[in-house]
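worker-03 picked up job from queue 'complexes'. Input manifest follows; two sequence lines, order preserved.
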Amino acid sequence: MQRVFGRPKGLTELPFHYCPGCTHGVIHRLIGEVLEELDIIGDTIGVAPVGCAGFSLDFFACDFVGAAHGRAQAVATGIKRALPDKIVFTYQGDGDIAAIGTAHSIHVAARGEKITSIMVNNAVFGMTGGQMAPTTIGGQITTTSPYGRDCALVGAPIDMPKTVATLSGAVYVAACSVDTPKNIIQAKKCLKKAFQVQQAGLGYALVSILSTCPTNWGLSPADSLKWLQENMLPVYEMGELKMTEEVKAL
Amino acid sequence: MSKELMKGNEAIGEAAIRAGCKLFFGYPITPSTEIVEYLSKHLPKAGGTVLQGEDEVASINMCYGAATTGARVMTASSSPGFSLKQEGMSYLAAAELPVVVVNVNRTGPGLGGLGPSQADYFQCTKGGGHGGYRQIVLAPSKGQELYDFTMEAFDLADKYRTPVVILSDGFLGQMMEPVELKKRPKADLPAKDWVVGGCKGRAKRKVASYSLTNEIGEVNNLHWEAKFAEMKDSLQRWEAFHAEDAEYLIVGYGTCGRIAKSAVLKARRQGIKVGLIRPITLWPFPEEAFANLDGVKGILTVELNFGQMVEDVKLAVECRTPVYFHNRLGGMLPSENEILRKLGQVFDLAVEV
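worker-03 finished. Artifact:
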């Protein structure tokens, strides 16, 4: 019998132990498929952050390096500069990339570092138990904004992909979501392009993906998707935010 | 072999290139800046890469990344910048990554000043970052040692899979001295069978320091403890100068060790049996240098801080002989006469200065 569906070769056999309803698993799978389809599993080094996505170093079939909190892109820079012919990507949460690691998020793009970054935005600090992140939306209740995020006090959420898109070294910036099958397909296209950009040596590529955190949002998986659609999609600009002519020609 | 007149910082840069350093990530800070400048000019010509990071934090983490590939890599800074690297140093120690880190010690605390200081001794030798790690710390005292120790630091880093700190200071870094540009010694080093670089044809590899369960955490820590113990047993190094028959010992490293030599010679000319122990490895501290204190009536430790290494001297001496302390602070250096006067004062000796 012909096997028509299975685990992509880009993932290890280890079962995900993310919380039920968390979309890290979906995003992992998409990246695993891309690694397999581009036939780059054996040439790729991933860099894992601190936070829930820190687990990713066990789930991907390629070599992996664990970085300090926020430093994944600096670590990836060191790897890429040492091995310019290899594919290097970072997989980071919104806290890692948009709070503690902000300096590196800006400068890796400014330098046009030839790496691929994947930002998973679930609007909270997941692993520490649902605290306010720079991406927490106005009014959102978290354990450190128990009365709802007051933007007058702590500012409005950062739309990191939009910020990064202003920098000339960032040649491909996409903002996606994995809340519907249609959006999952679109996210995979963007992820694939972000790796192809690196294969072609064009510059820095960032794909941001909106994600759910049912555990810390205190919602069921289904209600979490609904919450994402109603509350996050209006705040964060979606789509391929930036694509240089060279990237379009790929 | 011919000698070249070089700034101490330049000697470090040249030694790194000749030791096979392929990547340098740094951020300029006085009085270490000539290192990144020298390498920016010369390392690319030798086939290497220099990248100025957005800050010290980025630079040390770029080193971390490059080291995971097995490439020889270095960074350099001075005290306030070295502080910023401490998170990264802890991760380097935990992930067991060979990186050479130069600290051209300037005065502090805070922004401090640009003069020489030894106030980063604790930070370097006791683990400036979190988590209780150890790293090799080498203390050069002249241009030639800046060159030699830098070259050797890369071998030590590879041999023990550890960060190695070169603890220089603003005086050594800025002074010009003749340096013999020796060739890289042949070292017998273990194969780097742990590096990442794409898993084609082999099993996937990971380099990380995460231990999610306490049981794994304990196993990891026992491994590190054993490794630190092995380094402590096998790496202690010091220079003994007229120490064999000494009745009074001066202990000083780096710049202080160098100045103390003049004090020793001057005392000897006056018939006073003074010797010097100059620690070369600050970690591991050369406890073995103090194993035999027969005939030693007392020790004077000289440092450019409030008293840091003196604690390790006291631990090594175990109260067998009195230990005194002399210092200068804020970028000032003691003179040989000043050290001699202090010796005379604490040990009740008639010294002529």
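worker-03 released lock.
Chain A touches chain B at residues 12, 41-45, 47-48, 54, 57-58, 61-68, 71, 74-83, 86, 103-104, 106-107 (CB under 8 Å).
The beta strands of chain A are 44-48, 63-66, 87-93, 116-121, 124-125, 131-132, 170-177, 204-210, 239-243.
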